[in-house]
Protein: non-specific serine/threonine protein kinase
Amino acid sequence: MKLSSQSKQVSVFLNNDISVSCETSINPEMSLDDLLTNCKEKLNIEMHSKCIIYDSQGAELSDDDIEYLNEEEPLFLSQGEEFTKSSTIALYNNVKPLGQGGFGSVSLYEHRYTHAKVAIKSIKLKTLVSPEDINRVYSEIAALRELKHTNIVQLQSTFTLNEEICFVMEYCSGGELSAYIKTYGPMPETKVYSIAMQIVDAIRYCHNSKIIHRDLKLENILFASDSYSMIKIVDFGIAGMFNLGKSGERSSAGTILYMPPEIYKSEDNRANPAIDIWAMGCIFYYLLTGKHPFVYETVKEIISHIENVDYKPLSNTISKPWHKLIKGMLRLKPSRRWDIRRIQAHLEKYYEQPDEQVSEDSEDEEEKKVVVQAKFHKANTLTRPSNLLQLPINHFVGKSHSPSRQSLSDKTSDGRRVFPKSPTASRRAFNMFDFKK
Structure:
């Protein structure tokens, strides 16, 4: 049964050169050969050429498909070559540039027929001059294909076009988090809780998928819309894989203000969840204060303050839960930073109960406990032996204030040495045994 006897207008693009196209009419009574003849004539292609017509998904058309063609879907004419994925760009009109980077650019495109907006990131192949550059691009493709989360930008497709690799991604119209802070200043705590919980949930999902973002920063977190409520994390170009208990992928790449001390100290540059924890701590600090915790005039100063975890404490006007959280995330040793689950639980607890009392267990307090325990252990070793044989020799004889008992000894008639009894020996022994009680 025919769906319609009316003619339709469809756009047909040349498969290997989308700058060449034509409009042609179709109707249910037409055959595929009729359509091919019309297209060849309008595109100045020799009639004897063997051609194929593909739909926008790359499927080859047959006679049975003609009556079901949609005016909103472009077609692609091939002169024998396979469908070219770059033909995807023909579905969109370029609206405006969104940003420019070292590897390429991002522009806003609008679908010709559905009018849906997408962001297309184009990376020039000639800028990929090293294996690390190439790996960065393909790492991002692999990561985005794997990650399906509400707060992670979705990759719709990829293709090559005119010596460029193109990523077709969902468009986030709200812009970068950094631009929002510059415009409106620090966020109220309730909004920071909302944003922070979204970031943490997305990064926990990444870590569960064994992916470390490694370049979390304000510029890589976008608002999905101009309602400024939902965020999307972008740019997984230097993301790394890790396995708990095993060596993760190594890289010293990142953004200076968000990189942790162990990277600068060349102690450990393996992919590790603690790298993202540190960066999130810097982000939350900025959302609350409008300033980076480690921003200084020179790179040398910045690195020095990061290596010493030397940043200005949060103001007393900011509630205690944030003080505790930032201290837990910005810790020198990666192993002592709060893990993602503890961070998430903390945020959820104090978002719902902002007036709940906060216990003091900052890194400083823990360090004090460690020092006290170490001193007590040392003192215990010296003053509380389990038996007298464990005491060091100089506990009984002090070289600095008394002569050797050897020099005070006498010989008996049978040649044995007799030592004078120390006047304090009995009291010292008594005191030690008494202390043990």
